[in-house]
Structures
1.
Amino acid sequence: MFKRLGDTGATLTVTIDGKPIRARIGDTVASAMLAAGIDHCRTTPVTGAARAPYCLMGVCFECLVTVDGVGSRQGCLVPVAEGMKVETQLGKREAGR
Amino acid sequence: MNASELASSYDLVVIGGGPAGLAAAATAARAGVATVLFDENPGVGGQIYRGITANPVRNRAILGEEYWAGSALAAEAKASGASIVNGATVWSLDRTLTVGVSIAGQARMLTAKRVIIATGSLERPFPIPGWTLPGVMTAGGAQTLLKAQGLVPTGRTVMAGNGPLLWLLAAQILRAGGRIEAILDTSSRLNWLRAAMFLPDFLLSPYFKKGLALLREVKAKVDVIPVGNVAAVGTDKLKEVVADGHHIPADLLLLHQGVVPNVNLAIAAGVAHRWNDRQLCFAPVLDADFQSSVPGIAVAGDGAGIAGGTAAAERGRIAAIAAVRALKPDAKIADPQTARQRLQREEMGRAFLDELYRPVAALRQPEGDTIACRCEEVTAGQIRETARMGCEGPNQMKAFLRCGMGPCQGRMCGLTVTELIAEERGTTPDEVGYYRLRPPVKPITLGELASLPISEAERKAVER
């Protein structure tokens, strides 16, 4: 859905669900996921529908992910760091299955 | 700066690092007022000047000179002596001017003599069928990715809605080498009739020439289709956009129908708000110095009502001058008259834009299975039915349907729910009111709460 504009600057590696992806210094978790072509970051607690980052400015809470073990972080507000472990989240009903 | 380096009190706490917050902090700090600015993003600039201090976009023409004007504001704030703290989330503010803030997982409560809320705006809800599908995003979201991370949409991109930001983003995407399949323009032709009376002011405003040039630039390259409705279609992700019988295959749909004040912190602090029928949103009740109904709390920038980035900075200066005069009557400070004149000039064309881009009722008040509350997946049909059964307001609606009770705390559905109830009950949004909001206005962990410093005596004290 998105491509980098020209010179992308220094990169680092984070893992998404254990899979390493290259991110750029200055990325947030949400932007790194979108740039890597990951099409959703969580499912909903009510129907289990897939959701992806929507507002990218900290108000919609669609980009919730687990970052280094802490759940429900807003991916669009967390800057990436080398070695960061990001996990997509399941809605509560699915997680209990 | 980490939480332990914060003072326990400040003369002035500014919340939000966009144009209003930066101008306010700079103005106050230069006058010798102990000022701290908290901003939850990784860098200052707010949304309009997003990424201004560390921008990956090398070609300045892509974002335009308007954007780069933000670097002067950021530099002014940095040089002013104000403490500027990024990655700082303010989750609480009350009538005693106690501010709860979290930085890197550490929370602190501190007190202020004055507070300027500069939390800006967010995009108006755009509740259409399928707007929760991956592949559907706000135009502002795509613009943030471009400004802060240098990411440009690729694949088949469709834009829908109306408003200045939609056209600006379209131009920026094109300048960056991106492609837009179509722009679905949801403006009503009837808007022109209402807007026409404000045209003379608009012709004199700085927006006129810029706006016209942008429209020309975009329309030369993109198919613009006037439509009355829009739907996103797909199962797990967006497949196509359907509008008035047009079927457009798409990978990305960018939605926008204007911006509205981000009211969560101000309402939770007890600031009185009122429905603004021209801008179709709730806005705080403020005096000429942007002081609110809560003594010591001012609201500046687009949070005070939508007027744009340049106006936001002037509002920030006016609010800060009032704060300086109250805190340090002997301080040397500019007369606010200059800022007021500049503000007036900026606000001149606003009424025209508000009327021209007034979003149509069908796209604000959805029906049937269209989701109104994204978090709790509550449909417009459920809300309408519950209102018809006798539910009188958004707070009662929470008890029935849980709308507004998910993680976004009503930010994505509040206006929709208020307008739906008003429509069903034949009353006004002002009468219906908005969600009652309480701190924490952003989620914090128990660990963060537990990190609040507390003395032995306080720990053993009897709580009320």
2.
Amino acid sequence: MVKLLSKIGAFFRNVVVLKWAVQFIFLGGLIALIFNYLNIAVGNLANTNIAFSWGFLGETPGVSIAEGLYTLPKSGLQMLQTGMLNMLRITVTGIIAATFFGTILGIARLSNNYIVEKTATSLLEVVRNVPLLVQILFFQALILSLPRLEVYDVGSVLFHASSKGVALSWPNRQDGAWMFMLYFLITLYISNRVYKQRVKLLEEQGRETKPFLWSLSALVILFAVGWYGGYRIVGIIGFVSGFISQGLEVLPGIFYQILLSVVAGYISITSVRKQISSKRSGELQGKYSDDDYFKMIITIVIAIVFIALMFAPVGQGIAKFLVGDEPTFKSDWGLPQFFGGISNALDWSITGAPYELNMAEIEQVGTTKFKKYSTEVGKSLTVGYFATWLGVVIYTAIFISEIVRAGIMAVSKGQSEAGLSLGLRRSSLLRLIVLPQAVRIMLPPMGNQYLNLAKNTSLGIAVGFPEVVAVGQTLYNQEGQTLPVFLIWMIFFSTVSLTLSTIVNYYNRKLKIVER
Amino acid sequence: MSIIEAKDVKKWFGDFQALKGISMEIQEGEVLVVCGPSGSGKSTFIRCINRLEQHQEGSIIVDGIELTNDIKNIEAIRSEVGMVFQSFNLFPHLTVLQNITLAPTWVRKKSKSDSEQKAMELLERVGIPEQANKFPGQLSGGQQQRVAIARALAMEPKIMLFDEPTSALDPEMIKEVLDVMKELAKSGMTMIVVTHEMGFAKEVADRVMLFDDGLMVEENTPNEFFDNPKNDRTKLFLSQIL
């Protein structure tokens, strides 16, 4: 008896056993927790008499949006798209501007010039010690204090600024704009290929091949050809999409269920095989650790669960969605509709210039005293846009400046001394030696700041900027569908953040210094 | 004609006086070894010669140009004076070849093919042409220091400064670097070498100096310096390191 007890004791003192036990207990606990919360959510929804539904995405919300893609959205989906695009506009332009100003400010902080250094430092202390929301409200107040639009302002203008924001002349999209954008991307790719080809020739034959001139002329010629109608060549893609769309219409939902299951099975099997071969390839006869076994088991379990889900109502729902006949989902999503949409947008019977340069327009609404910038021609940027943009850009630029400063200071002093002793000027030294090394140190924290900027755009809600959080809130206040809107927010912000960090990580790997 | 003329050079770091009046003259083609205990000001002095440190009193004239606050003079002198550091200070983000061609391309405005050809010649001279496309992090310490010498030579300097070039190296690698330096000395380069390698001083130096506490306490030919030093401080120093 005593012997048995001591055996059991020894069994539970075995670190391998303990490790496995902890892994399984943690996994079980996690699954139980998720199920518990799902149960609670379903119960709560049932109590409030609101059935979980995506229907609002297809219904007309009956509200207007101050600026963006659709100012009078016909569906909840269009409304959210407008919000997402507005958020992305601020994020993309903001990241570029914040990086630019942040770098200058960071270098100014390291300046030997007393006045430059102290000015930069005071700006830093003010901006980073005041909440971002307060700064955005401050910029709003600042713009609102500009002169108001008056009757004599009405008409076409090149540029106008007032308490309503800013209006400027702008190349407005015409029917062929989508085709032209795609065409232009292809053009960029081609000129890049030309450049690489010429560089290769230069390296192989050692004669001057002028790669930059060649690629630039390719770009200019292709651009000109495209602008005057050549862009219609991408209509081929639209033509093919039309056929794909027709073909996809006859496919039943079960096809997608099987397809997704096969893909999941394939991914899990290849991943397990990779894990096996990573330790056992050719001469290598490594031993598997417990973690290796655990990883393989988890991969297979996830695949089995996924396949099971594919044939449960969840999978049927996804299949219906892809087939495009989800009845509660009145929008035009679904794979046939998606390709149909591409075929409509890339139609080679479209003619005319892809963009048209328009003056900005100041309009009087009917006979009322209410005057506004046109959202149809030219470009109008609202107070909300400016306040949010300035707020997030300056706030992020300040933190980036600290990263730049730290990055430059982290490059050893010996590097500068070596550069100086070779006779390099300070500006060349910074550009050729210090910054390339500092960038490697700066990139990871810089990525964090970009994510912060992207997420901080949601503060635009305070100044009436219609970004994705503001329009989402309007939507669920109208329809009561809180949970779907939150899901959309989560998926959208995760997608943006993960995309940003993927880009930053890509460059981080690319710039890594080669060590032995 | 003397290529470097220093007169009564003084330098303070805060309230600590590192150089207390150094005067010397160096002739073209001369090899000068400077030794002394740490903190004696020998590194500070040679760093004053290409203005990595700024002297506060006295004058330094290099190749007929006086070192003043005039940025043009400083740049002119720096491109005539090559320097090799204790910690190599190669640029880790550039290949060996790029390390060497950087200054000729950006300072001397030479064409890429010319400077690359010159760089390969220099790599032959220091004995590591096969490492041209590697990164500094992939080389041994001795190889890195030889690249650093090639990098300084690529500017075709009239004077080379060596700031303890072998102090950060393994004993095995010291020899390969010293061999390159001996070859350089025999080719007629003007050199100032701060080092503790007394064998090197005996073999190639034209003059040896001892610095102590910011002053030059002894200046002598190598034979006299090692066998018959004038100053008691030199005797003490030699007894401690030999």
